[in-house]
């Protein structure tokens, strides 16, 4: 098990991460909302990278996993800055961003911030703009008034909170309203039995991306997590194809 290290942000936040060196481009996994680098997809990706001699970076956003901070203070912009800081600290020249659910929104923001560094992206049930399409109008009113809303959590006993700061920041960083200026390869993996993200969103994201090299893979019986062995096999094949494409192009 590669040692967990901590990167200190200017305000003192300590961001937990794991890094294994190797051939590039570096695989960077971006977890979903309230998730961390101990999840099955992140772990499988890291193990694959270690065995294949590939560079890989995992991280916990502030307020999540082993990173310091309060989850209630978390926003997409805050977490984007943490990802960018880790990539800079590790001096990574080329990366493949792999974003799960909310991480699929965050990867678009990181790619915008690092246009010369991000080689390609893989979205796993990517959920850009979910503060807009995934929140009821009544709840939007409560959030706008500064209240936290809570929803049933299908993955645990505690309800899932949406804090007003996160919601407002999400609304300020909507991606699907205008073309997304990324020209590199993008692969989108989407389960059609996903109860959280409508599978049609993958098509909308594909259309919004400026790149012509976008492929959408639907997994008909796949749920939101896409963490079964068969789902992970699809992910690993997708990663391998992008890495090989990068090396062939080089």
From TrEMBL:
Source organism superkingdom: Bacteria
Enzyme Commission code(s) on record: 3.1.1.93, 3.1.2.22
Keyword Zinc: no
Endpoints of the signal sequence: none
Catalysis: reaction(s): S-hexadecanoyl-L-cysteinyl-[protein] + H2O = L-cysteinyl-[protein] + hexadecanoate + H(+); mycophenolic acid O-acyl-beta-D-glucuronide + H2O = mycophenolate + D-glucuronate + H(+)
InterPro entries: AB_hydrolase_1 (IPR000073), AB_hydrolase_fold (IPR029058), ABHD10_acyl-thioesterase (IPR052382)
GO MF annotation list: hydrolase activity
Keywords from the UniProt entry: Hydrolase, Transit peptide
All copies of domain AB hydrolase-1, residue ranges: 25-137
Role summary: Acts as an acyl-protein thioesterase that hydrolyzes fatty acids from acylated residues in proteins. Regulates the mitochondrial S-depalmitoylation of the nucleophilic active site residue of peroxiredoxin-5/PRDX5, a key antioxidant protein, therefore modulating mitochondrial antioxidant ability. Also catalyzes the deglucuronidation of mycophenolic acid acyl-glucuronide, an active metabolite of the immunosuppressant drug mycophenolate.
Protein name from the UniProt record: Palmitoyl-protein thioesterase ABHD10, mitochondrial
Organism: Novosphingobium organovorum
């Amino acid at each position: 098990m590669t040692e967990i290290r901590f990167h200190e942000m200017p305000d003192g936040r300590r961001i937990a991460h794991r890094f294994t060196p190797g051939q590039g481009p570096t695989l960077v996994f971006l977890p979903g909302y309230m998730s961390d680098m101990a999840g099955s997809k992140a772990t499988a990706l890291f193990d694959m990278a270690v065995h294949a001699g590939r560079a890989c970076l995992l991280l916990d956003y502030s307020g999540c996993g082993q990173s310091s901070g309060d989850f209630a203070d978390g926003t997409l912009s805050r977490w984007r800055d943490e990802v960018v800081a880790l990539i800079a600290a590790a001096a990574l020249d080329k990366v493949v961003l792999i974003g799960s659910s909310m991480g699929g929104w965050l990867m678009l923001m990181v790619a915008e911030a690092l246009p010369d560094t991000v080689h390609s992206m893989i979205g796993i049930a990517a959920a850009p703009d979910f503060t807009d399409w995934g929140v009821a109008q009544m709840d939007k009113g409560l959030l706008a008034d500064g209240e936290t809303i809570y929803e049933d959590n299908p993955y645990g006993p505690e309800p899932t909170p949406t804090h007003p700061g996160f919601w407002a920041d999400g609304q300020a960083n909507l991606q699907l309203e205008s073309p997304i200026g990324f020209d590199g390869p993008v692969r989108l993996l989407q389960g059609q039995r996903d109860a959280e993200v409508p599978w049609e969103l993958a098509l909308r994201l594909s259309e919004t991306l400026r790149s012509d090299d976008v492929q959408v893979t639907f997994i008909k019986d796949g749920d939101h997590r896409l963490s079964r062995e068969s789902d992970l096999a699809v992910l690993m094949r997708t990663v391998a194809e992008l890495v090989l494409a990068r090396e062939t192009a080089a």
